[in-house]
Structures are given as C-alpha cells and as structure tokens.
Amino acid sequence: MATIKDVAKIAEVTVTTVSRVLNNRGYISQITRDKVHEAMKQLDYQPNEIARSLFRRKSNLIGLIIPNVAHPFFAELTSYIEYYAYKAGYKILLCNSYQDSVKEKDYVEMLKRYQVDGIIMGSHTVDTSDYLSPTLPIVALDRTFTNNIPFVTSDNYHGGVLATNLLIDRGCKKIAHISGPLEINTPANKRYQAFMDVVLARKVNFVIKQTKLDIFDGYEKLAYKLFEDYPDIDGVFASSDMIAASIIHVANLVGKDITKDLKIVGYDDINIASLIVPSLTTIKQPIEAMGELAVKILIDLLEKKEVDIENILPVTLVERKTT
C-alpha cells in the first residue's frame, strides 16, 4: 500500500508539501499540485481521512442518528438530510438506534471517535443528554434537550387540532387517538395534547392507545384489539401514516366500510399515503424543509453563528379518501 512518502518521492517534493496539497493549506503552485496529484494517481494512493481530519480539525462528516431507517418517514428525512449535507460539502454517517439507549450512546461515542463535525439527533430514547458533549454541535429532530440544543420540528399541536376537528366535523362520535409513547418528552406529544383539548372542548367520546411510532410489528395487532374492544369507534387519528395504513388494512379485513363506518386521519404524508387504498387523509409534515433546516442549523453552529433553539415548521391538512 502506497504511503505519503512514496507520493513525495514520485512527485519529487517533500512529505510536507504533499501534506499541504492534501489539506489545501499554504501556498502551493499549480505545477506542484499537478505533480502531487499525478503521483497519487500513479500509486493509487488513498489519503487517511481520519489523520487528515485530525490535522485540519475538520472532517466534513456529520453523524445522523435515527430510530429506524426502514420507517418511510425517517427514510425520506434521511434522504433529504444527505442531499443537503452533500450539497454543502459534508458526508453522512448514518446510525440506527432502534430506540435503544445503550446503542444510541455507543453511536454517539463512535461518532466522536470518528471526529465528526457535528451530530443530527433524531432518535427518541428516554435519557440521553448525560452523554451529549456540549462542545460538539448537535441539532435535534422532533425532540428536545435541556441543555440548549437547537431542535427542528413541525407544528405538532396545530396538526393535532386539524386532524381531530376534521374527524368531528365529518360526524365522528367516538374517536380513537393512537399516539407514540407519551413518557418520552418529544414535540410529537403535542399531537396528543391537541387531540385531548379538542375532544374535551367539543364533548366527544374518545379512546387513547399508545405504541412505538417506528416499530411496525405491533400495528396490526393493535388495530384488531382496538376494533374488538371498541366496536363503536367511528374515527381514528393515528400519529403516523404507517399506523393509519395498518388501521385501514385491518378495517377492511373486519368488514368496516371506510368512510361510511370509519374515518381515518394519519400523520406525516409520507410517499405511500396517496397510494394506499383508499388514499389516506393526513397531516403533511414538511419533511424536505425539516431536513434542509437541520443541516443548515448544524452548519451555522459549526461556523459559530447564532441560531434559534426552537425551530417549528408549519403543517398542512391533506384530505383524501379516508375522511
């Protein structure tokens, strides 16, 4: 395997000159740069990126920790984060936490060892702030920390109000809300708060169920149990489109007519929402804008710019066939 010394020998320059070319530091004539790059090409030399990042104190790497890249919402969000990070000259190291606090902690420590410039944290475990370094720039997605870490989210409360009012306005008399785990303090809990405020104010019967938003295995079982325990439910506000899709699937299996017997509103407006049969009414999160803003805020932090701690983007109601 070729070394930097081999490159210097072929290019007939010093090792220091090769290092300066690699790290773009100091004045180097174009002739010398061309000689070094030609030598690298001849030797198929690959620079040690970790060593270079230590030298430059910048890796142009961003760590991204999410619960589950298989979830369509996080898959879309990850694609936009990668796109806007690459556009700005950064690459992504992707980590799946699967809501495991131990695994999440391991990934944070790994990202520190790899000298990432910053972390975008989209995972949702209960207690993580004890191991987040205050010196490493961090931006949170759909979660809040206590140590002034900026976060990007959508207007979850307004989304919950839109969804719940729509179901009631469409004539629903008993509405189920399927939320994420409420013991985890995330902005998404405001969907539940909004639901409760609306049903209590409008005096509508309701049912609350909780599930993990990124784990698909239990959705169908939850739907069967919901219809078994509460056969008179005529409206469902689900905190994700994937949950809503499972509700639609099971409703069809047990003979409920959508929208005659049951109306459903999801959340996110992931790509499949318009493809489900019947197509899903949902609250649209601005997924691309969230990804773009998270990258922008992190880069602003790296450049020592002032940023807002709270970044809340608007949501919209997209009405389709399930209401």
UniProtKB/TrEMBL annotation:
Gene3D superfamilies: 3.40.50.2300, lambda repressor-like DNA-binding domains. Residues 2-56 form the HTH lacI-type domain. One of its GO terms (molecular function) is DNA-binding transcription factor activity. InterPro entries: HTH_LacI (IPR000843), LacI/GalR-like_sensor (IPR046335), Lambda_DNA-bd_dom_sf (IPR010982), Peripla_BP_I (IPR028082). The keyword DNA-binding applies. Keywords: DNA-binding, Repressor, Transcription, Transcription regulation. PANTHER family: LACI-RELATED TRANSCRIPTIONAL REPRESSOR (PTHR30146), RIBOSE OPERON REPRESSOR (PTHR30146:SF95). This is LacI family transcriptional regulator. The lineage of its organism: Bacteria, Bacillati, Bacillota, Clostridia, Eubacteriales.
